[in-house]
Write a structure and sequence with these properties.
Rossmann fold; 5-stranded mixed β-sheet; 12 strands; alpha/beta; Alpha-Beta Plaits
Length: 312
């Protein structure tokens, strides 16, 4: 029974292979069913594509010009480039044997198929696996925790910030928000680096602080009983902890990944009398972070109400 992919957007299926004819055949069969077949030709191209835009399913040829499919499968998981719910298929040059299937499973592939590729069989497998992957994505998006780092996601942080703001308003307490970003030369930070930063924030912030990942490489800390001057000190402590963290927390970073920490903050001494809500407070910190990113390296830390000078 055909299962329609439950998605309003095209479902991306990445095919890593030099076989042009097979790619075209696959696209002609999967396209009308709501899939968008994307093509890469080497291991390097495949890794770069997935880092930039992770697909919903991946099909890998056993032999590629710069490597083999089994090694590529392992790299996807070793470097945390795909979610565990992403189906991966390995295409062999012959009918798969029991040994082939076991080798594929050990490399991380969900199944292996023979060449010539049976596109109809593959479409049937995608019709089973992809809807489950999309439902998992939806559950992750509507949850409160960032699955990759174990801290709040943007939605969870917003809810927790509202709770802290209500407490600060009742008790006439200070409230602040610090935003930090790790900017890499490549523009796309590895997941291992994001986990490293999350671990540093958890170990440095107070139990009462709310910590969340609010972007691909941006994190926010909402702190009660902390005004703007104290938020500056908090940002400095957090940045120092990020830079001091060991280079291997969670999955190792395969090659040295230089990065720069930028930070913006804002805070009010009495949230009860402040004419802002927690969302506005976070937007102010975001504006300060934007200025810190646009400034010289010496101005890595900026407050919302500062004139853009060095934050020493």
């Amino acid at each position: 029974m055909h299962r329609k992919t439950p998605s309003a957007r095209p479902v991306g299926v990445l095919f890593a292979s030099q076989q042009e004819w097979t790619s075209r055949s696959l696209a002609s069969i999967l396209g009308p069913q709501g899939y968008q077949v994307l093509r890469t030709y080497t291991c390097a191209q495949t890794l770069a594509h997935i880092r930039r835009a992770p697909p919903d399913a991946i099909i890998i040829d056993e032999e590629l010009p710069d490597g083999d499919g089994h090694t590529l499968c392992r790299e996807l998981y070793d470097e945390d480039l795909i979610a565990p719910s992403t189906p991966v298929f390995l295409v062999l040059s012959h009918a798969p044997t029991r040994r082939d299937r076991l080798a594929a499973l050990r490399a991380g592939a969900w199944a292996c198929v023979g060449d010539p590729l049976d596109a109809e069989e593959l479409a049937a497998m995608l019709g089973v696996y992809v809807p489950a992957k999309l439902e998992t994505d939806q559950a992750r998006a509507t949850g409160l925790v960032d699955e990759s780092t174990g801290i709040y996601n943007a939605r969870g942080l917003k809810r927790r910030a509202e709770e802290l703001a209500a407490h600060a308003a009742r008790s006439h307490s200070a409230l602040s928000c610090v935003l930090l970003a790790a900017d890499t030369e490549s523009g796309t930070p590895p997941l291992a680096l994001m986990r490293r930063i999350a671990a540093a924030l958890r170990s440095t912030a107070r139990q009462s602080d709310a910590i969340g990942r609010v972007g691909e490489n941006a994190f926010a800390v909402v702190a009660v009983d902390t005004d703007a001057a104290q938020a500056r000190c908090l940002a400095q402590r957090l940045a120092a902890a990020i830079l001091a963290e060991p280079a291997t927390v969670g999955a190792p970073i395969p090659t040295p990944m230089p990065f720069r920490v930028r930070a913006g903050f804002d805070g009010v001494p009495d949230f009860h009398t402040a004419s802002i809500d927690p969302e506005e407070l976070m937007l102010r910190a975001t504006a300060a972070l934007y200025r810190a990113r646009s400034d010289s390296p010496e101005g890595w830390l900026q407050g919302y109400e500062e004139d853009g000078g060095s934050a020493g």
